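Tokens as discussed.
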């Protein structure tokens, strides 16, 4: 199922079988947003959903404004109906091996941990702890879901702060239904066998560090030149529908981009002037279609860039204000996006964005910008570009020089006069 077939990729969409497609989401969106949820678009198992409301019914903020319909809100009901078993469902045992996980998940390498499937895509399966699962439908538990969500990822995917890399990737993982039992078995974990449960062995899995705190605090000589080069690579490599296009030459904007441009200009202008960024940042939460809406991706990148720097107390206060907005995003965006915002608020990034920071701050040895930025741009359809826009913006806001691309400089000036 590709993204253009009347389904909004960011939502845990309705069943895609011919019998139920008519009741599903009817937003025709030709793109796909999200960190490595699939090469082109999430694959959603035909058995994981049910007919849902239209995009404007389930995605609209309750503000009454037309622009609110541009926001994504994926607190969709979970389908608990009895389902006909598939070849993957009837496997009583599927035992796989984790080869790596993010440092915040180090505790999963020891003992037994029970999870349930939150959502399944082509190369990522999102899990929530079994004790959280009964409350996962409730918007009141959205923050708990964001803080505890864990992602099983394909070995070719990005290193996620909340990710577990499974190798080899089994095709049945992409077809798992919501609520399916998954057991993560670390060292000393016993007694976890359950009929139909998927078992992932995590003992001995390597850890990677997603922290970016202070990573660019003392960059190597040539920092301004590398930052200019990073902006050039982003403008040339980003898709025209991404927010990164705002950094390029002037061009006609669609309604989503116009609203995003106004908010982004206000936000970057507020940071540049040392003013409270929260009002504009709150407007960006959940803004845009997809699994990780563009406004969220921009904020995620901003926080990652801000945490990488050594900031003066007043500047650190602005960063912390942004982190407060991000930490409170649950319920106003998708669970998956809220999880990324949660980690960014604590200075944790995906491996690909972290590699860009390393290439900027410490150009030798690898990764180099010419390698790191294309890899980051490949995340989702526009998520990588929007995240890079935020990251480079944070580095530029607090640079001693005016390194803004002309498009963003004009946007900030327009935001100051709004």
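Sequence:
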């Amino acid at each position: 199922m590709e993204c253009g077939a009347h389904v909004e990729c960011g939502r845990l969409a309705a069943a895609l079988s011919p019998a139920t497609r008519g009741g599903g989401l009817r937003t025709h969106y030709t793109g796909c947003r999200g960190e490595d949820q699939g090469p082109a678009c999430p694959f959603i198992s035909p058995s994981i959903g049910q007919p849902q409301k239209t995009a404007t019914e389930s995605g609209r903020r309750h503000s009454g404004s037309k622009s609110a319909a541009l926001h994504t809100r994926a607190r969709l009901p979970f389908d608990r109906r009895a389902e006909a078993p598939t070849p993957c469902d009837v496997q009583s045992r599927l035992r796989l091996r984790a080869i790596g996980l993010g440092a915040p998940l180090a505790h999963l390498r020891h003992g037994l941990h029970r999870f349930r499937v939150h959502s399944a895509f082509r190369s990522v399966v999102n899990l929530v702890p079994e004790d959280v699962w009964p409350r996962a439908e409730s918007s009141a538990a959205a923050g708990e879901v964001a803080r505890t969500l864990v992602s099983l990822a394909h070995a070719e995917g990005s290193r996620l702060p909340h990710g577990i890399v499974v190798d080899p990737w089994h095709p049945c993982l992409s077809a798992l239904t919501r609520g399916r039992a998954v057991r993560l078995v670390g060292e000393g974990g016993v007694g976890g066998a359950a009929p139909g449960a998927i078992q992932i062995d995590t003992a001995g899995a390597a850890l990677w560090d997603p922290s970016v705190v202070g990573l660019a605090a003392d960059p190597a000589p040539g920092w301004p030149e590398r930052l200019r080069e990073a902006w050039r690579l982003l403008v040339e490599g980003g898709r025209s529908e991404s927010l990164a296009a705002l950094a390029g030459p002037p061009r006609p904007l669609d309604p989503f981009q116009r609203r995003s441009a106004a908010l982004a200009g206000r936000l970057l202008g507020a940071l540049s002037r040392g003013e409270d960024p929260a009002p504009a940042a709150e407007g960006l939460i959940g803004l845009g279609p997809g699994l990780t809406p563009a406004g969220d991706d921009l904020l995620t990148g901003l926080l990652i860039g801000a945490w990488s720097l050594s900031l003066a107390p007043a500047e650190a206060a602005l960063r912390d204000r942004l982190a407060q907005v991000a930490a409170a995003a649950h319920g106003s965006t998708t669970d998956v996006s809220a999880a990324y915002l949660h980690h960014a608020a604590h200075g944790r990034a995906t491996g690909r964005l972290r590699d860009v920071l390393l290439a900027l701050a410490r150009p030798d040895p690898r990764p180099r910008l010419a390698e790191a930025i294309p890899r980051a741009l490949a995340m989702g359809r526009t998520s990588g570009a929007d995240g890079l826009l935020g990251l480079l913006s944070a580095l530029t806001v607090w640079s001693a020089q005016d390194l803004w691309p002309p498009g963003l400089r004009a946007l900030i000036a327009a935001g100051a006069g709004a």
